[in-house]
């Protein structure tokens, strides 16, 4: 028997064993979702290859498929819950767009927890409330929750208003101001300033700050670079940082921000007890409150504080509020009737109260409706993965059409915010931008999940809402926003939905990121 024959036979047997093993894994993946109708692909959505390839029928869904498909897959399958299975890797999961099922998954923590494997990218600076689960999450939340208070919300309003007015002052008295990239040149810098002062307790200004002694960058500059390069430490080996100048700059910014935070923690924890109480009572930014937050004798460690500060304040919240503000301004430019109504409400309230403060927040109902409708159409997180901790049952739909779906332990369940937000069973004309739907006091709160639901809902929700409404109030009360048609040409015959899609054209990342577009701000009479 020749050596070639033996090698060929051995290779064939090896491949056969591999194929049989793979087929067995595929069968197990399909059994895990009960052979539920849905998507079947060669390459899995969560795999590295699946995250970079565009959508290819039967090959891969593409990492942005939840944004682009919205409710289409559910509609095609005739169900608000479907299963997806892939060959490489052999994996499966359920996807939900049913409010009752999503509520069950979000609130029953005995059966479902956050799928923390999907959030490891948020641990570049350490563990934090977003990325952890179980007893560690309970402990961190118990200690941190009191910091998210009305005192902080008052501060957020004042800080957001102050920086928006500083930005407006920098525009001078020109008849109109063109912001060429509303996200990069307006929303992101504004958000950085608000996070720096109301979130992290640092005095910054809209303009250039002075680099303090012992540092190479200002706090604001370090925070800005880190917010844009948060994940580089997770993917770059130490030897690679010097290969590109931008990576060198990022490494320096990461080191500078850590140095700032270490010094901030050290200086605060060296205070005597009476002085600590003075700081707690007088400085209501989140970082100061978190440094001194405790449950009995338990405090957040220095690593936990830095992880929370960097990952939550400078990444998640910063991008969420900035990208949402940029999209809101784009939508107001596209829908002048909505903008005019918002301006009228602001003018009426200002005539009544002269100056609007956080105490008037609940009267700014239409401004909040504009924010909510924007987040319904453009949720910052298109999917929120959960994981079953035990065998359980999900109920979807309502009698007499309700049905149950068996969910085995360890099964991943995707809460699809875009599927839910565009579900016509719960939102009339779901593609339309109509803030009026949120003026109805009985609007369906279970069908709206931009901040998630249940115990794991975003702890900084009111922080973001307050900042957005304060910024909108300061901007729209003084300026009319319009499309810069010298850069964005209108096309004859296109619908408003086509124009909106072409203008906003977001990309899917950790948050939904709008395209670069230019807006014109004209002073109101």
TrEMBL record:
Required co-factors: heme
Positions with a binding annotation for heme: 458
Entries under PROSITE patterns matching the protein: CYTOCHROME_P450 (PS00086)
Molecular functions per Gene Ontology: heme binding; iron ion binding; monooxygenase activity; oxidoreductase activity, acting on paired donors, with incorporation or reduction of molecular oxygen
Keywords from the UniProt entry: Heme, Iron, Metal-binding, Monooxygenase, Oxidoreductase
Pfam families xref list: p450
Top-level division of the source organism's lineage: Eukaryota
Keyword Electron transport among record annotations: no
Family recorded in the similarity comment: Belongs to the cytochrome P450 family.
The name this protein goes by in its record: Cytochrome P450
Species, as recorded: Rhizoctonia solani
């Amino acid at each position: 028997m020749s050596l070639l024959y033996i090698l060929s036979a051995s290779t064939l047997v090896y491949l056969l064993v591999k194929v049989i093993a793979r087929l067995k894994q595929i069968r197990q993946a399909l059994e895990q979702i009960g052979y539920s109708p849905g998507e079947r692909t060669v390459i899995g959505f969560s795999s590295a290859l699946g995250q970079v390839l565009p959508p290819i029928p039967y090959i891969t869904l593409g990492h942005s498929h939840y944004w682009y498909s919205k409710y289409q897959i559910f509609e095609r399958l005739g169900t608000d819950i479907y299963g997806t299975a892939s060959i490489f890797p052999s994996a499966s999961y359920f996807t939900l767009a049913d409010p009752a099922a999503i509520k069950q998954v979000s609130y029953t923590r005995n059966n479902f927890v956050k799928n923390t494997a999907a959030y490891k990218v948020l641990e570049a600076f350490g563990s934090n409330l977003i990325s952890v689960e179980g007893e560690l999450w309970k402990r961190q939340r118990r200690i941190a929750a009191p910091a998210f208070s009305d005192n902080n919300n008052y501060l957020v309003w004042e800080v957001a208003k102050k920086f928006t007015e500083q930005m407006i002052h920098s525009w001078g008295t020109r008849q109109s101001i063109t912001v060429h990239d509303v996200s990069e040149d307006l929303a992101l810098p504004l958000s950085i300033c608000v996070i720096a002062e109301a979130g992290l307790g640092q005095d910054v200004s809209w303009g250039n700050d002075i680099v303090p002694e012992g540092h190479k960058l200002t706090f604001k500059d370090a925070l800005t670079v880190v917010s844009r390069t948060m994940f580089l430490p997770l993917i770059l080996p130490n030897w690679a940082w010097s290969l590109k100048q931008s990576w060198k700059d990022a490494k320096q910014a990461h080191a500078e921000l850590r140095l700032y935070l270490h010094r901030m923690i050290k200086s605060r924890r060296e205070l005597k007890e009476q002085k600590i109480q003075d700081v707690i009572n007088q400085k209501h930014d989140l970082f100061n409150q978190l440094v001194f937050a405790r449950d009995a004798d338990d405090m957040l460690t220095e690593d936990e504080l830095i992880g929370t500060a960097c990952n939550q304040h400078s990444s998640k919240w910063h991008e969420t509020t900035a990208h949402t503000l940029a999209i809101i301004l784009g939508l107001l430019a596209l829908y002048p009737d909505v903008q005019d109504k918002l301006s009228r409400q602001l003018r009426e309230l200002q005539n009544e109260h002269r100056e609007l403060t956080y105490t008037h927040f609940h009267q700014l109902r239409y401004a909040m409706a504009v924010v909510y409708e924007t987040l319904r159409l453009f949720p910052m997180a298109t999917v929120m993965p959960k994981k079953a901790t035990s065998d359980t049952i999900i109920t979807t739909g309502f009698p007499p059409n309700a049905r149950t779906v068996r969910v085995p332990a360890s099964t991943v369940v995707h809460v699809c915010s875009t599927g839910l937000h565009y579900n016509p069973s719960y939102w009339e004309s779901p593609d339309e931008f109509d803030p009026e739907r949120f003026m109805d006091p009985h609007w369906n709160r279970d069908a709206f999940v931009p901040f998630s639901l249940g115990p794991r809902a975003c702890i900084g929700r009111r922080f973001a809402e307050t900042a957005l409404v304060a910024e909108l109030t300061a901007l729209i009360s003084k300026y009319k926003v319009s499309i810069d048609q010298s850069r964005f040409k209108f096309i004859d015959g296109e619908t408003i939905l086509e124009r909106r899609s072409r203008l906003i054209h977001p990309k899917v990342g950790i948050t939904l990121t709008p395209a670069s577009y230019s807006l014109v701000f004209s002073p109101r009479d």
